[in-house]
Amino acid sequence: MPDFSRVLCAVDLTEPSRRVLDCALWWARRHAADVSVLHIHRLVIPPSETGAVPGDLTGGAPAVPVMDQAPLTAEEHQARQLEVERFVEQARTDGLQIEVLLDEDPSVADAIVARADALAADLVVVGAGTEPASDHPVLGRITGDVLRAAPCSVLVIPTPGVDFANPCIAGLSRIMCPVSLSDESRPLLAFAAALATESAAHLTVVHVVELFSEVAALAYDFDAHREARVQPACDALVALVAEVVGRDKPAEEVVAQGNASQEILKLVNEESTGLIVMGRGAGREGRGAGGPTGPAVASEARCPVLFLHQDVAAISRPFSSESRPEPRAAAR
């Protein structure tokens, strides 16, 4: 398993962020990690008087932005710091080294990413968010920006109002790992397998074959096209799991057909999954944090989603080469 020695948890002091903190503390306790709890006092920058949005070069030279919300005074900073500390004290913090941080920045996402970099954090824990204006419109803007820029892995906790499988309470009994069958899948799958072994959890490895748009474009026999795509995917998935996870380890392969995020979410709900492990590198794995699949899954999943950074080197080894059962086809 990779070393998770520093966890950074971003909170906004609302009730929904309590479960974000709970999940961060749960993860840190499992991995004997230190925790930094970060709250951002957001400095709001309005559009300039010329009507151009700051940073929008189409409006001419951007004017110097004016602070709409002033920085905290020394007294205000101390009072807010105490408020954050009380927020943390209400959680179960036994056995953990916790520091409380208060930053001020016009961009909450930039502040989180900067702190993660400065602390050499191994994991950032954030809520899925609800803001619609985003490069990832299905996620909150702040969470989408953190996913794109964080220098480490990111654990996204479901949005407020979602009845989710809380691993802090229910434990971690089922893990799902969607893979693309590329080389990028190997460290991701090795990590998921190691985590499942550590947790004595059932591991489901999923690959989704996206057929329908291709069939419409190519206009040839659907059944023949499906057979040509699905069976090779089944064979490749069995080979990947056998090589990375090992044939004597409890892992189930599932090949689904359709829209990737929809099929993953369907399986998550059917199997009462407690954690989804996805890639967030620059390549194709899970479409990456910059593509649509990962954010779409995180926005609706009823469990936390761990986006593993591409630089995480999972420590695992292949096992024996006995025969495995055929992968399960997802119910249509």
- Please tell me the CATH architecture of the largest domain by its name: 3-Layer(aba) Sandwich
Distance between the termini: 35 Å
Structural class, by secondary structure, is alpha/beta
Helix proportion range: 25-40%
Strand order of the largest sheet: 3-2-1-4-5-10-9-6-7-8-11
The main sheet comes to: 11 strands, mixed
Task: Identify low-pLDDT runs.
Answer: 49-68, 132-138, 282-290, 313-324
Task: Output the helix-strand order.
Answer: EHEHEHEHEHEHEHHEHEHEE
Give the name of the CATH superfamily of the largest domain.
HUPs
State the CATH topology of the largest domain.
Answer: Rossmann fold
Q: What is the multimeric organization of the chains shown?
A: single chain
Q: What is the radius of gyration computed over CA atoms, rounded to a whole number of angstroms? A: 22 Å
Overall CATH class of the largest domain: Alpha Beta
Number of domains: 2
Quantity of strands, as a count? 11
What is the averaged pLDDT score?
79
* Overall 3D form: elongated
Specify the number of helices. Answer: 10
